[in-house]
Amino acid sequence: MRRGEPVLQVRELVKHYPLTRGVLFKRQIGAVKAVDGVSFDLYQGETLGIVGESGCGKSTVARMLVNLERPTSGRILYKGEDITALSGRALKAVRRNIQMVFQDPYTSLNPRMTVGDIIGEPYEIHPEVAPKGDRRRRVQELLDVVGLNPEHINRYPHQFSGGQRQRIGIARGLALRPEIIVADEPVSALDVSVQAQVINLMERLQDAFGLAYLFIAHDLSIVRHISDRVGVMYLGRIAEIGTDAEIYDHPTHPYTQALLSAVPVPDPDAREHRERILLAGDVPSPANPPSGCRFRTRCWKAEERCAQEVPLLVVPEAFRTAPTPARHASACHFAEEKRVVPAEGELT
Fold first, then answer.
1. How far apart are CA 101 and CA 107, in angstroms?
2. Residue 10 in 3-state DSSP?
3. Where are the beta strands (DSSP E) in 83-131?
4. What gap in Å lies between CA 229 and CA 327, rounded to an integer?
């Protein structure tokens, strides 16, 4: 949960990919606005879940946080220092504290390297963390921490199951004892039963090492299980952000409400009486997003104002008088208004 000042602050983060035309003489004709003004805070020991449909920009945010992508604009502050302005040794020192766990354990591990070499590779980049004579012991300790047999240090990735490979990826992320783990869809490639095991492992490691997680996923039930706070992204922007209880029990943005209405409910009675929101149309192209509110072309609350004004991510008036400090913010002009959801086919 939150403790003191945020360990990571993201401010108006933007990533645009240029669209070009021509072979010999290329000229830019536009840009894909993958991320277009994302801001959030991450606190020590907490998990911030980021959810949204494929293509909403959540993985691009993750890659910018670990410097696999350079932002077009915006700031990423680690303990108050803007790491987007760093380079060389200064950037290398910061990257020690922000590590990533990738989505697919089948492709993120080098098949020609042993497990020991894979997990110990960060020590080659940061030799000050562990002297050469101590690295094998540290790798074996990491294998044990993530629930694998330390004696399997000389095996290759193909000799492990999918869940075990993801544990290897987590061990590699822990090698430098970071403060932040960016987990990009870490369980989406795994079977359901294995997903639960990996999620439980991540929670135990968070308690043991005081880690902060940015947990990116499209499965809302998994995000609710592991997250303290949740941010919902749509077409490159955050539509709503708040605690897990605020988002799942009292969603205010129409997009969040539509997403949650599609989550499977085990109780037959609750499922029968639940309102299902079916959105019209497809997600617009990030190369040509709608003006104003990007969700307006699929929203049953949309009015002329939505096409003209970009809604700010602010705390609705109803939450500003709450006894506890308001954190539940929604990027909707009509977040507090309850309007009848149209029947399927009525929204055009």
1. 12
2. strand
3. 98-101
4. 10
SS3 for 73? strand
Contact between 345 and 328 (Cβ < 8 Å): no
Q: What is the pLDDT along the chain (348 residues), one digit of tens a residue?
A: 445 689 999 999 999 999 888 777 788 888 999 999 999 999 999 999 999 988 899 999 999 999 999 999 999 999 999 999 888 888 888 989 999 998 887 788 899 999 999 999 999 999 888 888 899 999 999 999 999 999 999 999 999 998 999 999 999 999 999 999 999 999 887 888 889 999 999 999 999 999 999 999 988 889 999 999 999 999 999 999 999 999 999 899 999 999 998 877 666 666 566 677 888 888 899 999 999 999 999 999 999 999 999 999 987 665 555 544 447 899 999 987 777 666 554 554
Bridge partner residues of 32 (DSSP): 17
What is residue 33's three-state secondary structure?
strand
Which domains are seen in the chain, by residue range? 1-21+28-97+215-348 (3.40.50.300)
Give per-residue burial for 22-60: e unless 16+ CB within 10 Å, then b: eeeeeeeeebbbbbbbbbbbbbbbbbbbbbbeebbbbbb
This prediction has a pTM of 0.90
Q: Which two tokens stand for residue 229?
A: 């706070």
The residue type at 78:
Y
Task: For residue 5, count other CB atoms closer than 10 A to its CB.
Answer: 11
* CA 5/CA 149 separation, integer angstroms: 38
